[in-house]
Amino acid sequence: MANNLTETQNITKELSLLLKIISSKLVDHNQFFNIDWDEFINLAFHHRVYPVLYVKLKELDNPAVPPAVMAKLQASYFENGFNMLKLSSDLEKINRSFSDHQIDSILLKGPILASMLYGDISLRTSKDLDILVNPEHLFEAEEVLLSLGYVSNDERITKRWMLRKKHHISYYHPLTQTRIELHWQMSSRVRGISFKLLWKRRITFSLSGNPINYLSQEDLFIYLIIHGARHGWFRLRWLQDIDQMISNEMVDAEKLKLVYLEYGSEYLGGQALLLCSELYSTKVPQQLFFLINDHRSYKLANSSLFFINKKIDISTISDKNILDAHKKYNCILLSVKQKIWFALDSIYPSYKDYLMLPLPQKLHFLYYPLRPLLWFWRRMKREVI
């Protein structure tokens, strides 16, 4: 798949070696020499691909790999396996409780994704469980989580405000330390896809004999792409998932075309395919080439390579140049419809407005005319500080 991704020339020898190993490409023995192994191991953890890396390196059994590197990967591999088992157990408890209360739910990622794509839950990392529920049952689902001991410190003013400004609520269990994201929208980038439609297309997957609802393979493919694109694909783990879905022939191109009519943003799919082809040498079927008909796919892919090469965590950017690069990325990323949505959404009162001037609920309508003044007030306070 020919492309003009100029950022590929900036890939370091450590990242190049990492990619060849985790994508099961033939590795020249000489590539294992003159490697900064501290940087190599840091890349593996930054990109969250250390479980797969450990298994692949163990198979290669190359004496050039320092024993300390293998020891660290092994310890982290087993720790992740334990964590994934714990998440699986907690998932089954939540799924059973939702089912008992007749709450329709669909798991978005988590241990099932690891099992589906890699055949082993210990080969992928997950820090939390993302669960999508029918918006009509959202507050009943909240009550169930609270009854199971989960707590939330997420900002909220009113239910209406929360449904408008957010797409999920985060929960944390003080004893098990399990984190849950309870979604009523798949993503802030995906609005308008009805839960009923996703529910109709859902598949069921079994963990320990208990059926758990999951996204259809086409919905999953698009969801993973939107999630990765939203974060600039700064972690290779997300691209690894797309590579696995394509390599395992899990996506039906004709069904995908129909589902994309509902989502739009095919150019994000093109971005993912270009990155997989370049970094993983993924053999993209010709039937999926319809996703690569937009120049934005190339621009976005090149920007993501910049983030990958710089080992950037999008959620913690402080460098001005990188912030500017991320702003440009987002400008290309958003469709016209999404830009209009976010422009309109900016008019809606924010949680910062509420913190600055707490008003009783019956006076919340005043936040609309006061919003420009509150914004100006916040700006003045920052400049004084």
Description:
By secondary structure, the protein is an alpha+beta fold. Among the domains are: 90-215, Beta Polymerase, domain 2 (2-Layer Sandwich), CATH 3.30.460; 349-384. The chain contains 17 helices and six strands. It has helices at residues 13-22, 37-46, 50-60, 67-100, 110-118, 138-147, 159-165, 195-201, 217-230, 236-247, 253-263, 266-280, 295-309, 320-333, 336-345, 351-356, 367-384, and strands at residues 105-107, 129-133, 168-172, 179-183, 203-207, 210-214. Strands 1-2-4-3 form a four-stranded mixed beta sheet. The chain has a two-stranded antiparallel ribbon with strand order 5-6. A hairpin with a 6-residue loop joins strand 3 and strand 4. The chain is globular, with a radius of gyration of 22 Å. The protein starts with 12 loop residues before the first helix and ends with a helix. The model has no long low-confidence stretch (mean pLDDT 89).
Blueprint of the fold:
Layout: H1 13-22, H2 37-46, H3 50-60, H4 67-100, E1 105-107, H5 110-118, E2 129-133, H6 138-147, H7 159-165, E3 168-172, E4 179-183, H8 195-201, E5 203-207, E6 210-214, H9 217-230, H10 236-247, H11 253-263, H12 266-280, H13 295-309, H14 320-333, H15 336-345, H16 351-356, H17 367-384
Parallel strand pairs: 2-4
Antiparallel strand pairs: 1-2, 3-4, 5-6
**Order of helix and strand elements from N to C terminus:** HHHHEHEHHEEHEEHHHHHHHHH
As a percent range, the share of helical residues equals 55-70%
CATH topology of the domain at 90-215: Beta Polymerase, domain 2
Which quaternary structure do these chains form?
A: single chain
Rg over CA atoms: 22 Å
Numbering strands along the chain, what is their spatial order in the largest sheet? 1-2-4-3
* Largest beta-sheet characterization: 4 strands, mixed
What is the structural class?
alpha+beta
Number of helices: 17
The shape is globular
What percentage of the residues does DSSP assign to strands (E)? 5-15%
User: What does the average pLDDT come to?
Assistant: 89
CATH class descriptor name of the domain at 90-215: Alpha Beta
Q: State the end-to-end distance.
A: 52 Å
CATH architecture classification of the domain at 90-215: 2-Layer Sandwich
Tally of strands:
6
Low-confidence stretches: none
